[in-house]
């Protein structure tokens, strides 16, 4: 008889029933939202904490690899387990109620902060989980949207959202709609989005740059730094004294927090980066955040990196025109069969996940040291991803040294293999950020062995040429045939088992998990990852690079 067991999920109290089937299948069949991906015990997405009850492990086929995801004594993988009794489970970092992408909100306050800056206060119908530094999209009656940063820490203010909005000459929202918004008016908000968020590194001194209402994006990061007693300096650029509309708060905060300094920088007197550089920060160890106009961001980045700032420690948001008519607008249309996405899919979410993955990869690469074992590197990477806010890894993190770089991704590696002074290293990440799947991988060279350098060069050439071929309208299958020829022409072999895949709001595994190399239609942008793994025909040297297929890479 197939005994049924009731599985309760804490703290929601929601339940589902299961019999002999895998817990993952039972939970999916119940219609509850489930975090999962690989179904083979490798990625850890379906990890739960067992609060009560008994279970047994899935019986494996004789030739099947054992699940390799490391678990604590009270943890279990839904995809590898059957219930033996009723159970109570907790799913860390996961909400059973997928937050809606668009929520209603009510205007609860509006006041002028200066001659052309308005503060708008909104109360959303359901509280939003906003990270310090993120923004929301305001839906407008004509179907368009505008982006505005959340200028407070909503969790500390009963969910209230504060915005600081500059009047833009001829602005449809800031000079039109905004004037008509009275207390009690209703709005629709989408998000939150954005990768310019607090990096959770309390040890690094923080330098903040803002121009104009760029301060709105920076203020929550400042508030977080103050709360955590991190050393923090703000450089705020503006044209006139009224542009520093939060000066009184900043002056008070300096008195209260001895580790905080702020400097107003009038454009007639200089640039924010010039003043900051003259103050002699220890750039090698600093974390920089910047919000404001594009030229300021490029100059701050260039100057700070030149002064020693590691590039992945520069985190920024450009406050550009954000309506649909702006140059960056992308219109997405997906194939209904092969390119399905979930209810929270959004271009902004996918772009932020990509940006965070690129930054995480750089941070992890910067922490690889000669003599480290693969096992130690994987542990370091897991800590880094957690510290940066990844809730899950939708595929396992792969780190491969030397001869392991030619192995297929699913094949195990020697965890004791040490990184040598002259070596080639592959790092491949699949983190989930705010419900969006990121995926980014690259190859790093230690020392200057010509074969290693040649591998990296060929790898990026093959990727770039294949991406160009995608722009010409090739199907997924044709892309990999093209990549194979491109690799051979450079004296390398394309590992065809790494064949590209979907990416979406997590988990894309709910939909068809077709490989890009099997796709008979031209893949759409922002839905697929192009993976290229090259191997030397005779030497144990390989390289790997991947990125999302997108028009403006
Ligand atoms: C992620 C993000 C967060 C943002 N956060 C804030 C914020 O917290 N506070 C804030 O005041 N602004 C913010 N902005 C900028 C804001 O979204 C735009 O200025 C927006 O287009 C203003 O809408 P509007 O309808 O008033 O003007 P629009 O009708 O969009 O624009 C009117 C005209 O002005 C030009 N224009 C508009 N904005 C800009 C700009 N920033 N730079 C140069 N030209 C522009 C347009 O190209 C157009 O010609 C943010 C932008 C982004 C991308
Ligand atoms: S470990 Fe269960 S889905 Fe990956």
From TrEMBL:
InterPro entries with a match to the protein in the record: 2Fe-2S_ferredoxin-like_sf (IPR036010), 2Fe-2S_ferredoxin-type (IPR001041), 2Fe2S_fd_BS (IPR006058), Beta-grasp_dom_sf (IPR012675), Cbr1-like_FAD-bd_dom (IPR008333), Creatinase/aminopeptidase-like (IPR036005), FAD-bd_FR_type (IPR017927), FNR_nucleotide-bd (IPR039261)
SUPFAM superfamilies recorded: 2Fe-2S ferredoxin-like, Creatinase/aminopeptidase, Ferredoxin reductase-like, C-terminal NADP-linked domain, Riboflavin synthase domain-like
Pfam families assigned to the protein according to its UniProt record, in alphabetical order: FAD_binding_6 (PF00970), Fer2 (PF00111), NAD_binding_1 (PF00175), Peptidase_M24 (PF00557)
GO molecular function, one term: 2 iron, 2 sulfur cluster binding
UniProt cofactor(s): [2Fe-2S] cluster
Domain 2Fe-2S ferredoxin-type: 5-95
Alphabetically ordered keywords of this record: Iron, Iron-sulfur, Metal-binding
Span of domain FAD-binding FR-type: 100-199
Gene3D superfamilies assigned: 3.10.20.30, Creatinase/methionine aminopeptidase superfamily (3.90.230.10), Nucleotide-binding domain of ferredoxin-NADP reductase (FNR) module (3.40.50.80), Translation factors (2.40.30.10)
Protein name, as recorded: M24 family metallopeptidase
Lineage summary: Bacteria, Pseudomonadati, Pseudomonadota, Gammaproteobacteria, Pseudomonadales
